[in-house]
Amino acid sequence: MLDDLLAFIDACPTPFHVVEHTSQALRAGGFCEMNEADAWDDATGNCFISRGGGLVAWCHHTQSTGFRIIGAHTDSPNLRVAPQPDKGGFGYQQLGVEVYGGVLLNSWLDRDLGVAGRVVTPQGQRLFRIDEPILRVPQLAIHLDREVNQAGLLLNPQAHLSPIWGLGMPTSGDFRDFVASVIGVLPHEVLAFDAMCYDLTPAVIGGAHQEFVFAARIDNQVSCWAGLQALLHAGDLNAAGNLADSAVLCLFDHEEVGSVATAGATSTLLPHVLERIVGSREALHPALARSVCVSADGAHATHPNYSERHEPNHHIGINQGPVIKRNANQRYATDAVGEAAFVAACEVAGISHQVYMHRADMACGSTIGPFAAATTGITTVDVGVAQLSMHSAREICGTQDPIDFVQSLKAFVTHTNP
Ligand code: ZN
Fold first, then answer.
1. Beta-carbon count within 10 A of 272 CB
2. Separation of 298 CA from ligand 1 center, angstroms?
3. What is the pTM of this model?
């Protein structure tokens, strides 16, 4: 099962690839793809739609009175290629990049980077990925930065992060020509692109006793993957006529930059699809009132070298179960009712859980949870897999936690609403 998680992460260098890979898995599981642009006569059964870097999949039947929803996000912090990226000097060809989300900038230095994304041509959208080490952001030698280990590494996003990708004079259009040749179209057919860098190192199992997963994009592809497994399970039950309430998986894009986007958690993506599933606005509101949502996203494991950064009554361990996240200021959406719903699912699955609180004197991060709760009015619980190195180009989680998360989410989506 863990091999499937590693393959998922390796297959998904961008949010668009998460949507494509997830769509393939849903189709293989018998889910029917629908289109937002069509009129829907009937949305019962196992179905899904995609919107850019977002996706909603559902298992619905006419006896259902509410939804069991799993939300997650497809995007991860990274370096994104500028629209006019060709630049350079001193004999180097470089690409201009823009920092996307809360990147740990140092983690992108001295890594072999590929480029992936989507291209829009007159024939439509095409995904692409260049699995070659074509880019590198070289760190300054210590002999030219003698204070770096004492004063800390200061990186200016405009000045210090442009990858090198060749030697010679940069020419306007170089990158566009390169992408066109990779996907097999003429340069003028590349009307526009969304391109981003990614670390080529594959996801691996590590640790002396295989306790860890070392991989890029653990935040939040572990949750996307776990939610997908739970929904495929719900789909099987629905096909056999054994699903209690309707199950939904909603993968949002752009969480890392505040969720205000066409497929972000503040968007119409989830509420509009839920309305179309039940068929009318009048049917929607009672269903929302009888629903519960898990907002699935990474949680901070206690860092052994910085234990003082953590709330001493809420230490979180790797491979000790899913983490319920609480924040009185609603940076996490969890309240007592939502927490109880997830605890009940863990009990059904026979899995222990942990509860996280950020230190009261530090600003807490957030998730799609508060936005999904606000746009739908659905009781929501923020839960995730414990991890280290959040927002690094390469992160760490446990090998048992993702499996336990799948089991708890399976129990959650198949549990009857109160
Ligand atoms: Zn996240």
1. 15
2. 5
3. 0.97
Output Rg (C-alpha) for the chain, integer angstroms: 22
CB atoms within 10 A of CB 346: 20
What lies within 8 Å, CB to CB, of 226 at 6+ separation is 296, 385, 402, 405, 406, 409
- pLDDT tens per residue across span 268-317: 999 999 999 999 999 999 999 999 999 999 999 999 999 999 999 999 99
Tokens of 344: 């009940």
Residue 60 CA to ligand 1 centre (angstroms): 27
**Distance from residue 242's CA to the centre of ligand 1 (Å):** 32
pLDDT tens readout for residues 387-418 = 999 999 999 999 999 999 999 999 999 876 55
Q: Determine the distance separating the centroid of ligand 1 and the alpha carbon of 269, expressed in angstroms.
A: 18
| Alpha carbons 390 and 395: distance in angstroms, whole number | 6
Three-class SS of residue 23?
A: helix
Q: How far is Cα 337 from Cα 308, in angstroms, rounded to an integer?
A: 30
Q: At 405, which helix (H) or strand (E)? A: helix 401-413
Interior CA angle at 198 toward 195 and 201, to 5°? 155
Run of H or E residues at 272: helix 269-278
